[in-house]
Amino acid sequence: MPALSKEHLKITVEDDILRIKGYHKEEEEEQDFDDEQWVAMSYDYYDTTILLPEDTKVDEIKAEMKDGVLTIFIPRTEAPKNDAKEIQIK
């Protein structure tokens, strides 16, 4: 997400769905030699959703943005280990 800044991003969680939305707006204004003026605008939108596992600790989700890279940390509760037990055949 190199064109997006963290001010233009919004991350929400609702009903075990993580949503990342962002936008980038760019305007360019220039004046010609004939004193004509023109403006070029471009808009980019980003919107994606991720289904979270049931054991997600929603209150502990963290995000950070560094050098155009968005990293989201999604902690999960530890699932109880299922110890495998071998059954002897008689």
Written description of the protein model:
With about 90 residues, the protein is mainly beta. It has one domain: Sandwich (Immunoglobulin-like), CATH 2.60.40. Helix content is about 0%, strand content about 50%. The protein has strands at about 10-15, 15-30, 35-50, 60-65, 70-75. The strands form 2 sheets. It has a 3-stranded antiparallel β-sheet with strand order 1-2-3, with no helix packed on it. Strands 4-5 form a two-stranded antiparallel ribbon. Strand 1 (about 10-15) and strand 2 (about 15-30) form a beta hairpin. The model has no long low-confidence stretch (mean pLDDT about 85).
Note the topology:
Layout: E1 9-14, E2 17-31, E3 37-51, E4 62-66, E5 69-73
Antiparallel strand pairs: 1-2, 2-3, 4-5
Provide a brief overview of the structure:
Helix content is 0%, strand content 51%. With 90 residues, it is mainly beta. 1% of the residues are buried.
